[in-house]
Amino acid sequence: MLDVKQLSICFSNYSFGLKKQEVCAIRSLDLSVKAGEVVAVVGQSGAGKSLLAHALLGILPRNAQVTGSLSFKGMELTPKEMVRLRGREIALVPQSVAYLNPLLHVGVQISRAAELSGIAAKSSWSSTIKALKRYKLDEEVAKHFPFQLSGGMARRILTATATIGGASLILADEPTNGLDEDTAKETLEHLRQLADCGKAVLLITHDIEAALQVADKVTVFCGGVTVEEAFASDFYGENKLRHPYSQALWAALPTNNFVNDLPEKIHAANNGGCPFSATCCERGDLCGEVLPELREFNGGRVRCQNA
Ligand code: SF4
Fold first, then answer.
1. Which residue(s) pair with 300 in the sheet?
2. Could you state, in order of their start, the residue ranges of all structural domains in the chain?
3. Which of 221, 243, 277, 302 to mutate to test the pocket of ligand 1 (most atoms within 8 A of CB)?
4. Which of 17, 34, 228, 289 has the smallest count of CB within 10 Å of its CB?
5. Which atom of ligand 1 approaches the CA of 305 most closely?
6. What's the pTM?
7. What would the pLDDT profile of 269-290 be if each residue is shown by its tens digit?
8. Is the separation of the CB atoms in 113 and 164 below 8 Å?
9. Strand partners, 32
10. CA 239 to ligand 1 centroid distance, Å
């Protein structure tokens, strides 16, 4: 459904001396999602994960320069195609419920999304009611303002708004942020159901444990680079993870050894080397200078000199 190869996103700006400079937030991102799959993109905050969703929707700021290859259903995803597919074939479940308009009834907002996705105006209200029912929300909820909803209900409204047009690819950006455990579980189950119904779901999150509840595969993202593509089951198998960063990320969880060998933030390494080289215990001579290729390894893919 979706193939991303060597995606890079750089921003140009001007420093005080009006000197133009370029900062690359994403340097080499690779991933693929098939119909029926949930693929989680995990990594620390600031790794560039949310930029990926914005790049796929064509809503990056104007000073962004994007290179690499993006394809959707086997066709090149050009800026023109992104505009055509946005909300119809590719939909975003945004990070925050603040994306809902606080002054409009939620039913009106879902109905508007239905019309923008191509559903005829005369059927948009009935589609809205069906969408509410699909997410176990009472018809009356359509007449609520966002502030009248619980966190879980607001999440379901966001998902209903994103999926009402029947999009094939759902981008869920930090969908469990700030939710209590039960609501987070319910939100993730909805994403899993979408995949089980044949959609492709890209789940962008910093919460690996939450992602592993529903994901088939995991793309590990570090400092603007894909460092590993693994199966969700690899996180639970002994020595199955291929990259030192994935291993450190996993070991840092309170439910594991709580060994925090990770710096607070890993910046995109613009010097060409491995983004984890400043911290990695397995670092070799070339690691700070050369970014390794993403290679097939033990059934997954990894980007490490030692693999
Ligand atoms: S490329 Fe080098 S620094 Fe990067 S993870 Fe592999 S061994 Fe460590």
1. 297
2. 2-89+167-239
3. 277
4. 17
5. 1
6. 0.88
7. 556 789 888 888 888 888 888 8
8. yes
9. 3
10. 16
118 lines ligand 1 (CB under 6 A): no
Q: What own/partner pairs with CB < 8 Å and gap ≥ 24 does 53-59 have?
A: 53/92, 53/171, 53/173, 53/202, 53/204, 55/7, 55/9, 55/26, 56/2, 56/4, 56/82, 56/90, 56/169, 56/171, 56/202, 57/82, 57/86, 57/90, 57/92, 57/171, 58/82, 58/83, 58/86, 59/86
CA distances from 31 to 81, 105, 179 (A): 20, 37, 27
Q: Is 183 helix (H, G, I), strand (E, B) or coil?
A: helix
What's the CA gap between 146 and 122, in Å, rounded?
24
Q: How far is the CA of 278 from the centre of ligand 1 (A)?
A: 9
Identify the bridge partners of residue 93 per DSSP, sorted by sequence position.
172
Query: Per residue in 34-90, pLDDT tens?
Result: 999 999 999 877 667 788 999 999 999 888 999 999 999 999 999 999 999 998 899
Tens of pLDDT, residue by residue over 205-258, are: 988 988 999 999 999 999 889 999 999 999 987 889 999 999 988 888 877 766
Pocket lining: 287 vs ligand 1, CB cutoff 6 Å = yes
CA distances from 111 to 4, 129, 264 (A): 32, 9, 42
Which atom of ligand 1 lies nearest, measured to the CA of 275? 4
Instruction: Determine if ligand 1 sits within 6 Å of the CB of residue 268.
Output: no
As a CATH number, domain 2-89+167-239 is: 3.40.50.300
How remote is the CA of residue 276 from the centroid of ligand 1, in Å? 6
Tell the burial category of 247 from Cβ atoms under 10 Å away from its Cβ (0-12, 13-18, 19+).
Answer: buried
Per the structure block, which two tokens stand in for 282?
């397995």
Residue owning tokens 């105006």: 121
- Confirm if 22 and 2 have CB atoms less than 8 A apart: no
Residue 170 has pLDDT above 90, yes or no: yes
Indicate whether residue 247 lines ligand 1 (CB < 6 A): no
